[in-house]
Amino acid sequence: MQKKALVVGVSGITGSNLAQRLLAQEWTVYGLARNPATELNGLIPIAADLLRMDNLEAALSEISPTHVFITSWMRNETEAENIRVNSLMVRNLLNAVAPTKSVQHVALVTGLKHYLGPFEAYAKAGTLPITPVREEHPRLPIENFYYAQEDEVYAAAERDGFTWSIHRPHTVIGKAVGNMMNMGTTLAVYASICKETGRPFQFPGSGAQWNGLSDVTDARVLAQHMIWAATTEAAHNQAFNVANGDIFRWSWLWQQLADWFDIDAKGFDGSIHPLEVQIATDGTLWADIASRYNLKEPNLDRLASAWHTDLDLGRPLEVMTDMSKSRKLGFTVYQDTRDSFFDLFARLREERLIP
After folding, report:
1. Nearest Cα to 75, choosing from 178, 220, 166?
2. Across the strands, what pairs with 214?
3. Active-site annotation holder among 3, 4, 115, 146
4. Which residues does the UniProt record annotate as the domain PRISE-like Rossmann-fold (predicted)?
5. Helix 183-197 vs helix 306-313: crossing angle, to nearest 10
6. Is 113 a catalytic residue?
7. What is the C-alpha separation between 176 and 173, in angstroms, rounded?
8. Which of 15, 237, 245, 309 is 20 to 30 A from residue 218's alpha carbon, by CA?
9. Is the pLDDT of residue 348 over 90?
């Protein structure tokens, strides 16, 4: 049977890389977003709003996906609102595809906030997990929109009979414009600003992050992981961590990133220097850089998500993920983290998003 994928959030880091991988494997790929990316050759774009059931039903009425990949979410002011909105998005989507009875598997991307807590209580005392984080760790005793999204998938799977997988990456590194959580591009933009102004490339985070062990997830690895889980019977109906497979310390990697841009690195100096503060007034500067170098995106906020980078790099503990569960079931993909960043930087330069 021809595999037909519905990639929800196809314009984001995860969704775009996943769609590209699926297309390379000759899947039929529908890409859903409010403004779906159209530059992927072979992608069938679907413009729809997950919060409008009538709009969603009309947009999906003519397709019968075999696999649904949910990579989209929406940030709100409070966790209560995050829960309401993001669970509704998942529920609406799965209700909209239910009538065709074509769905065999649903994959949902969440992340390490499953273990570290939601934005309002992120990595705070009383919620800090034992690391490396493992899939069998129990849910935290606090509200979390990731849990609400999972519960919507579980309920629909019970009702409609499809299998499911949950994917928990750690800081996804990949190319996207307008993405809400985008450390790789944020650091590339920050480094470019430092190069243009002569500022030092100042590590913005905590001593625990600077000195502790960490890992990240290349968007290309995440894409392969999602396809593997969706098409491997032993991986069905399970939750998985997913990361590159190596570990590093920022005290080592920071200099590597600075060297790529040929700028001076400045490490942790005893204080946190939030990136959101460091680049708070650089919007006009970036627009000028974009004009001088003929860059495609002059809006700094469309490229940099400093708040999210600060959240990750400001954590009071080292954080890395255990992938034994995936390895035991046969997922052996590995990615060097330096190359994750260097490949991204090269692509951003090639596509004229950084000078």
Report:
1. 178
2. 248, 319
3. 146
4. 66-355
5. 100
6. yes
7. 10
8. 237
9. yes
CA 96 – CA 354 distance, rounded (Å)? 39
DSSP letter for each residue of 29-42 = EEEEESS----STT
Is pLDDT of 39 > 90?
Answer: no
Distance between CA atoms of residues 316 and 209, nearest Å:
7
Length of the chain: 355
Is residue 125 over pLDDT 70? no
pTM over 0.85: yes
The per-residue pLDDT of the chain, averaged, comes to: 95
Contacts of 189 (CB under 8 A, 6+ apart): 279, 286, 300, 303, 304, 354
pLDDT tens by residue, 201-258:
999 999 999 999 999 999 999 999 999 999 999 999 999 999 999 999 999 999 999 9
Instruction: Give the closest residue to 13 by CA, choosing from 102, 111, 100.
Output: 111
Q: Which of 4, 113, 175, 195 is catalytic?
A: 113
Closest by Cα among 55, 84, 59, 74 to 6? 59
Instruction: Return d(Cα 197, Cα 314) in angstroms, integer.
Output: 25
Torsion angle defined by CA atoms of residues 290, 295, 300 and 301, in that order, rounded to the nearest 10 degrees: 150
Tokens of 218: 């290349």
